[in-house]
Amino acid sequence: MAREKRLQIGDKEVTIRELSAAEIRDWMANAESRANESTKMVDLADLLFEDVTFHDLTVMTNVTLDQLYLMAPSELREIADGCREINSHFFNMADRLKPVMDAVAQAMTSASSSEKSAA
User: Fold this and answer.
1) Which residues contact 6 (CB under 8 A, 6 or more apart)?
2) Bridge partners, 14 (sequence order)
3) Whole-structure pTM value
4) Distance of alpha carbon 15 from alpha carbon 7, whole angstroms
5) With b meaning 16 or more CB within 10 Å and e meaning fewer, what string describes 22-48?
6) Within 1-119, where are the H helices?
7) Residue 61 has what DSSP assignment?
8) For 71, which of 27, 48, 75, 116 could close a Cys bridge (C-beta 3.0–4.6 Å)?
9) pLDDT, tens digit, 9 for 90 and up, residues 25-66
10) How far apart are CA 50 and CA 82, in angstroms?
11) What is the CA angle 101-102-107, rounded to 5?
12) For residues 52 and 59, what is the distance between their CA atoms, to the nearest angstrom?
């Protein structure tokens, strides 16, 4: 059975749920399209935390994006910490993938710059 954790944040009960392997796979499969979207318009709120985005929090909890925007950073951190606790495998995988993804992004940027210079 998947793990759950409940937090009381102000007057809202937040339920954090453990992602299934299929949900993690789908999240990873959609990461590229989310990255492409984020280059079009950066949500500055996502810069609050290095380890989690607002989209991640909506996937792991019963909280909507609009509700997250109304919360204080300390409340968001409490939710993010709960998500990290309940979904430790997801976050460990993301931590391992970050250097790889950064290298791929750097290679793509370098290739794009080289193509523009050659033109």
Assistant:
1) 13, 14, 15, 16
2) 7
3) 0.74
4) 7
5) ebbeebeeeeeeeeeeeeeeeeeeeee
6) 21-29, 31-40, 54-60, 65-69, 73-86, 88-118
7) B
8) 75
9) 888 887 666 555 555 566 777 778 888 889 899 999 999 999
10) 15
11) 95
12) 11
